[in-house]
Amino acid sequence: MPTSQVTVAKESLRFSAAHFLTLPGHVCERLHGHNYRVAVTVDGPVDPATGFVVDFAVLKRVVQAAIEPLDHRVLVPTANPSLQVREADGQVVVGYTRPGWLVVPAAHACLIPVAQTTAEVMAEWIAQTVWAGLRTTGTTGLTRMVLELEESTGQWARAELPARAG
Questions:
Q1: Taking CA 63 as the corner, what is the angle to CA 62 and CA 68, rounded to the nearest 5 degrees?
Q2: Residue 48 CA to chain centroid, in angstroms?
């Protein structure tokens, strides 16, 4: 069966967030931020009943739902073995080089189950989140998805998921 591709790369598919890496001495170890942009391409057969691989509106809605919790937040990688993360009294307290290395109001933090918040790791995590979201919409038959996460102009990471992903 032939396959087609559908891509969304709208200006609205963006988020701003602060993050840090646990790479001692690296410039990105310090808290800093980016204005991220997301593009998603999915492959699959065209549904003869609808004429869609996936409806653009559905794909945009699923991508937006995946990235909205990240927008204007501090991204905290909870699976990082170098961090001690706890929530207390409405705050997220991150121990890294010392206890209380970073304290953020809980409403300003987004706890993510990853080891680092590099563009590569974030692209994979967002891709898996989008893939799972598409499955909840009843979208079927997709064979592949590629998600690109642009961290800043001219630099991005790309994650590819085959149909068996998620």
A1: 100
A2: 31
d(CA 147, CA 126): 8
| Burial class for 152, CB neighbours closer than 10 Å (0-12, 13-18, 19+) | exposed
| Closest C-alpha among 122, 129, 125 to residue 151 | 122
pLDDT of residue 127: 98
Residues of the chain below pLDDT 50: 166
The residues spanned by each domain of the chain are 4-72+116-162
Confidence at residue 139, expressed as pLDDT on a 0 to 100 scale: 87
Tell me the β-bridge partners of 151: none
Helix then strand count (H, E) for the chain reads: 2, 10
At a CB cut-off of 8 Å and minimum separation 6, what does 32 contact?
Answer: 18, 19, 20
What architecture (CATH level 2) is domain 4-72+116-162?
Answer: 2-Layer Sandwich (3.30)
102-105: strand order across its sheet: 84-88, 91-95, 102-105
DSSP label of 165:
-
For residues 64 and 12, is the Cβ–Cβ distance under 8 A?
Answer: yes
Closest by CA to 38, choosing from 121, 126, 125, is 126
Length of the chain: 166
